[in-house]
Amino acid sequence: MTAEDLQDIITAGLACEHIALEGDGRHWFATIVSPAFEGKRLIQRHQLVYATLGQKMHTDEVHALSMKTYTPAEWATQQA
């Protein structure tokens, strides 16, 4: 799986204002900014992202995904 493939999958299921991916095809690190994260705890945010991947985590197409998740407001403070 390429970074573009993974980005397409995530953005098809989650509205993202920013997404950056690094990885080797099976192990990935993502930075994701989405308004859907508003009012959600960290685990809930990660569950939203994992839900977009569906069976791809279970079939080992994506072996590992580490992520940092931000709301747009949180992301703005990171960029300041």
Short description:
The chain is α+β, with helices and mostly antiparallel strands and 80 residues long.
Shape: globular
The first-level CATH class name: Alpha Beta
Nearest-angstrom radius of gyration?
12 Å
Number of helices: 3
Mean pLDDT: 93
- Within the largest sheet, what's the order of strands? 1-2-3
CATH topology: GMP Synthetase, Chain A, domain 3
Q: Which homologous superfamily in CATH is the superfamily?
A: BolA-like
Any idea how many domains?
1
Q: Beta-strand percentage?
A: 25-35%
Query: Major sheet, described briefly?
Result: 3 strands, mixed
Question: What structural class should be given to the helix and strand makeup?
Answer: alpha+beta
Written as H for each helix and E for each strand, in order along the chain, the element string is HEEHEH
Pfam family, one: BolA
Organism: Comamonas koreensis
Protein name: BolA family transcriptional regulator
Family: Belongs to the BolA/IbaG family.
Would you give an account of this structure?
Helix content is 39%, strand content 25%. With 80 residues, it is α+β, with helices and mostly antiparallel strands. The protein has a single domain, classed as BolA-like (GMP Synthetase, Chain A, domain 3, 2-Layer Sandwich). It has a 3-stranded mixed β-sheet with strand order 1-2-3. A hairpin with a 3-residue loop joins strand 1 and strand 2. The longest helix has 12 residues. The termini are far apart.
